[in-house]
Design goal:
The complex is a heterodimer of chains A (68) and B (255).
Chain A (H helix, E strand, L loop, with lengths): L1 H15 L4 H17 L6 H23 L2
Helix pairs in contact in A: 2-3
Chain B lengths: L2 H36 L1 H26 L4 H27 L8 H12 L12 H29 L2 H22 L8 H24 L9 H29 L4
Helix pairs in contact in B: 1-2, 1-4, 1-5, 1-6, 1-7, 2-5, 3-5, 3-7, 3-8, 5-6, 7-8
Classes of the chains: A mainly alpha (68), B mainly alpha (255).
Chain lengths: 68, 255
């Protein structure tokens, strides 16, 4: 049973985190902040896509450093 | 159906079909390696069980998610698509710019064949547990990524059946081509397809995630095209920039 749970945990870890933990952390922060302030805020039409691009930029930079 | 509804349906079906094709190319490589080295019966049985499990996942999660509040559903699915899409996009951009090795189906096939040939296959008529397990695991793991996309797109747009049908037909077509050629589909432009799918995942993740958060996008569904254009532009600008930085880095030790 423990082996199975470990396997499922490892699968989801690999699936959602793998070698890009910054993506999960970034998206979690974005969605959490969005839940607090985005409703009806017209600026978020610009903020949300830009935040996504910032996460991508950080991830590319880290991925580049990690190498092949 | 309104024209914007048609537009988003076409785009999400394109994403589902491309994602299914890319993942099935990888799954076919594994099943071919298992079938050619250890026997077709067990390899096909393993792949069939995996496909059955994937279909059950779609039915189970699809019906559960259908009962959730639309805003909560879109927030969760938007977040999931963003995580998933950004992971794919990062890898695809790094591969296209040479910072990461490209996916080589022929090399993967050769490696799998070498690995699977190490032990003797089971006697004729008996199930080969290694071929069965390798095929099952390979098809299931590749398929889960497609299933996440199918369920996310299907549940968010209320077109789960259409998304599942698109993915299944694509999987069958790719599988049939792979088995009729009896070699890995190494010529399929996987990275280019992944770049396209990743951009669509990030686009829909942003759009649906934003809707779930209460953002009122201008132009309604047509704003999906604006987002797609923005992410595609950034992708195609970043690839040559990153390629130049790699070349510059490679030159440093020679100076």
């Amino acid at each position: 049973m423990i082996k199975l749970l470990r396997g499922i945990g490892a699968f989801w870890w690999d699936f959602l985190v793998a070698d890009t933990p910054e993506v999960l952390i970034g998206v979690a922060i974005l969605m959490a902040v969005g839940m607090l302030v985005a409703k009806g805020a017209s600026t978020w039409v610009v903020v949300m896509p830009l935040a996504v691009l910032v996460i991508l930029g950080i991830s590319l930079q880290l991925g580049r450093k990690r190498g092949k | 159906m309104e024209s914007t509804g048609v537009l988003s349906t076409v785009l999400f079906m394109l994403a589902v079909v491309l994602a299914s094709a890319v993942e099935m190319v990888e799954a076919v490589t594994i099943v071919l390696a298992a079938g050619m080295t250890r026997g077709w019966r067990s390899a096909i049985e393993g792949a069939s069980v995996a496909l059955l499990l994937l279909a059950l996942l779609v039915v189970a999660f699809g019906s559960t998610l259908g009962n959730l509040d639309v805003a909560v559903l879109r927030t969760v699915i938007g977040g999931l698509l963003l995580v998933f899409g950004l992971q794919w996009l990062q890898k695809a951009i790094l591969r296209a710019s040479g910072h990461k090795d490209k996916h080589d189906e022929q090399a993967i096939f050769n490696r799998e064949v070498q690995e699977l040939s190490k032990s003797n296959p089971m006697a004729k008529g008996k199930r080969d547990s290694i071929a069965f397990a390798i095929s099952l695991k390979g098809v299931f793991l590749e398929g889960v990524e497609v299933i996440v996309i199918v369920i996310s797109f299907g549940a968010s747009s209320g077109r789960l059946g259409l998304a599942a049908l698109g993915a299944s037909v694509t999987a069958l077509v790719v599988g049939a081509i792979g088995f009729s050629l009896a070699k890995p589909l190494a010529k399929v432009p996987e990275n280019a397809m992944k770049l396209g799918v990743a951009n669509m995942l990030v686009t829909f993740g942003t759009f649906w995630g934003g809707e779930g958060l209460g953002i009122e996008w201008p132009l309604q569904d047509a704003f999906i095209l604006v987002l797609l254009g923005l992410f595609a532009l950034v992708t195609f600008v970043s690839i040559p920039i990153l390629r130049k930085s790699r070349i510059a880095l490679e030159r440093v030790p020679q100076q």
